[in-house]
Amino acid sequence: MAENKENKKDNFNFPPIGGGKNIKTPRFNGYWIFLLSALIIIGFNFFGMKTEPVKTNWQEVKTKMLAKGNVEKFIVVTNTGQVNVFIKPEKIQDYSQLISKGFKNYDRGPQFTFAIGSLEGFEKNVADAQQNIPGAAGITLEYEKEYDGWGSLINFLFPIVLILFIWIFFFRKMSRGAGGGSGIFNVGKSQAKLFDKESNIKITFKDVAGLAEAKQEVEEIVSFLKSPDKYTKLGGKIPKGALLVGPPGTGKTLMAKAMAGEANVPFFSMSGSDFVEMFVGVGASRVRDLFKQAKEKAPCIIFIDEIDAIGRARGKNPNMGSNDERENTLNQLLTEMDGFETNSGVIILAATNRADILDSALLRAGRFDRQIYVDLPELKDREDIFKVHVKPLKLAEDVDISFLAKQTPGFSGADIANVANEAALIAARKDKNAVEKQDFLDAIDRIVGGLENRNKVIKVNEKKTIAYHEAGHATVSWLLQHAHPLLKVTIVPRGKALGAAWYLPQERQITTKEQLLDQMCSVLGGRAAEELTFGQISTGAQNDLEKATKQAYAMVTIFGMSEKIGNLSYYDSSGQSDFSFTKPYSEKTAELIDSEVKELVENAYTQAKALLKQHQGQHKQVAELLLEREVIFSDDLERILGKRPWKEEEEEETPQTETPPAEEQQ
Hints:
Shape: elongated
Radius of gyration: 43 Å
Distance between the termini: 79 Å
Helix content: 40-55%
Number of strands: 15
Number of helices: 25
């Protein structure tokens, strides 16, 4: 062992192999040029600096210098109007102001300087002095032009160097911030991240739960690239592009990452905002460079996340400019996508949750041939997603994945991941050894309603109003056939709400007019309860009134559920109405719409009051129980109000549609 250590130690003394060719020399940095230039300028100014002459005037020169015969010569600087006075070396010590300035007897001068009004007047004064003053007889008068060489050069070059330095500095910073090279000429280069066989991408299609149809489409694209002959031997063409469309959090970007992990081809990934820069033409340049790299590495996949950043329909941009940088970038993208040769092996994949604002030229066949809709997960999909996200958690025995999936209608994949993580945090906060069922329920409440605030100070009469309000929601919804099934009612403040009634929305594909009216009636049950119980109303129903009003306007203007308006819908799914300044109906129709909406809301409110009057005693029992416990559940309502006669019919319905869990706020 000792011998080996000595050999290792000796190896450090050997010269590098190849005569030092393997040694990496330090990279030259352009900032050294600026530092060296600054040191040279400072050195010249410091070491070449002369002692400044003392300022004086002609009268002092005449009486104190010429009269004593101490002046050797005058030099007139014609371009500045100054006269430099040179004192004889042996006479320098006679002047205290020169000694204090550091002048020595060997200094060549000038020692004094003064300004003259005109050259002719000064020459006349010197001639008179030579005639009248004996000590001035032998003085010579010389003329010259003075140039500050270094000063002029510095004054000329310094602004240019400063601007160049700032320009290079900011270009380097922006290039680094965009993920590109450090040179100023890399701004127009593509900022796409390249994932190839050597990249360690651990996400595969197994990590993408649910979304069977969308995943099948994406898997087929990967299959195109792996074995193109299978699809082209019959004369077919490989699709040029696919657009992933769907609400936020449904897994569009995750599916693209899974493609990068599954495909054995280069995968270019970037965001739509990476094309947008403050410099004109940079976006189009980056598009060209991206497709140039892709063609060189074909077959490959290009993934553009949030493509709506550059793909917005031309003419619909918020600014009023006729031709902005985004449109130039979009035009270049359209050109590049349509310029591919047949079966070139480059497939463009993009994702957006705002497909309605994309340019129609971008969506036509030949560019994005396929639109893959990634919808919110259904019940079975939510169960599969829960299984993926609870794998790293230590679960208790009472956790039922299928039960959790039923409790989260309308949740996206990202929401479910958040529920699993929040449940683990809640369990850890309570010092539990495993994540229990109640932790998941608390996590769902936390995400939907906000954090509990039990320390909030609420007066007794206000708390009673909140209890009767929430009991009104619970009672009316329990007595209506098409209202959402109630889970629990609480008067514990959570988030901005002082109280809440929690429902589990029925999953439907379509909703009838009767179902909408029953939902509106249950929403107005809180306001009706306040009026019947206390004879007055409060601001606590603001959220309820907003929901009822929006729903009524939707029934009249969108769904055509008004007899007076008829089967008309003023909703524009293309988004064109967002940019128009006129309504699609007349003022007379607008008045009719307002009256119809008011009638719908008033009828629902009247129905809610009638139900509460009919079951006034039971409503009071629910409210008092709520004041006592603060939280009651559907079992308590069943004990007070009896079983719902429509319960069996609701259970026989096939849960289909996705609507988020409702929360009636006080």
